[in-house]
Amino acid sequence: MTPGAATAVDSLALLPATEALAGFRSLEISPVEILEAQIQRIESHNGDRETGINAFTETLFDSARTQARAAADEYVRLAREGGEAPALLGLSVATKEKHGIAGRTLEQGLAAHRGRIAPVDHPVVERLNAAGGIIHARTTSPEFSCATTTHSPMWGITRNPWNTETSPGGSSGGSGAALAAGFTTLATASDIAGSTRIPAGFTGTVGYKAPYGRIPGFGALAADWYRGDGPMGRTVADTALLAAVISGRHQTDHGSWGGYGINPFAGGDVAGLHIGLSLTLGDYPVAPEIRENTLKVARALEAAGAVVVPVELPWTTARITETTFAHFGHILGPAMATETAGTESELAAYTARFIKDAAAAATRHTLVESLAMDHALQAELAAAMAGLDALLCPTSAVASLAADGDYLDGIATSEGHLGHYWEAHLTSPFNVANRCPVVSVPSGLSRDSVPTGVQIVGHPFDEAMVFRVAAAVEVLVPGPGFPQLKPSYSASSL
Q1: Least C-beta-crowded within 10 Å: which of 92, 277, 328, 398?
Q2: Is residue 484 one of the residues assigned to a domain?
Q3: Could you list the residue range(s) of the whole structural domain that residue 75 is in?
Q4: Structural domain tally of the chain?
């Protein structure tokens, strides 16, 4: 479905957040109307855990409706009396299940966590509530967010609205699917090896990996310098709006930093900018159609006045995988093994494989050695980006992933077979270099009718630049629009 072909209900459900807020302020649109349009789409198209899009672990429609009515009343009051509304007042936000809501389950798809209840709101949730956002649904992820597809024994298979045989990516696959399907206006995500950008790429949406600590995390694993929480939206401006709300120092995460409420959106003028172009980041086997879509973006930037500079990096997918798993072998892998002890027989195959691979990498490299591996990649990226304002590269090397795929034997690509399917994505190097901000924006469609994406990589902490370039790409190379959804004939699992 393209925006021009949408029905009135569809148009409301798919309305960008910035436009919705303008409509709320002018009283031309009510938060109730948009929420009901999205609920209608969810009930018609989300489907069940086996054959449907299945984007959610649970829905919170009753409380959301109450909040929407209160938001509508508040806009009427503000129009009469004056004043400024909270930044997200009346906008629907689907939150990734790992972003705990006090008093509700926090299971992360694990049998070992079944029935676990969040004692407090995650900082991201706390800030959404304070900004007037309406959390109407919680989105699926793979077990412990450790895969780039989204399926689990607990929550079933989440499918890509563009092509339901394929995955929306992972680990924030439910968020990407919900945005693409018009089930929500905004969504939250997280990213430790590409878990925000990969779903954005595969669903034709926008995902932002902020510099480490810019968005506060929760719990001991928030200290892992590869990780981060983040925003997703259907436009660059929407994603920046959500980033502004959830970013900034928070008292519960001493590693968090920066001011709160600072919108990194900076327009889209790229004239005079020097933008590096790497189609493969070394030797990633990027599919020809993805290369062409990336080149299309580069040519458009050049036509808009940017200077596009080819960049060579001395990286291999095998080396990057070894580097990241050496890190995971000393942090995330042992944490997962501890969390799932006693329930090993109930784990998804990809989770067991991750724990095993991480443990093996830890026997090959000490933590100090893994730091040296990180430092080498960071230094090479810094050298490659010297004199540039940003770097452009694909988000994924492959056009799609199977919705139910485990990829225990690696993945076939256009140029051969990779031993580990994580090598199919060009995202994890920028978790190693995790002070670099990165935005993934759409670049076109693949022959699988699945969107493709490009990453805009900035120098450490330079958030405004990546949003500036991303905004230009969005204008110069319009996204794929919206998928045509099929009615769901299966009973919803929600």
Answers
A1: 277
A2: no
A3: 3-476
A4: 1
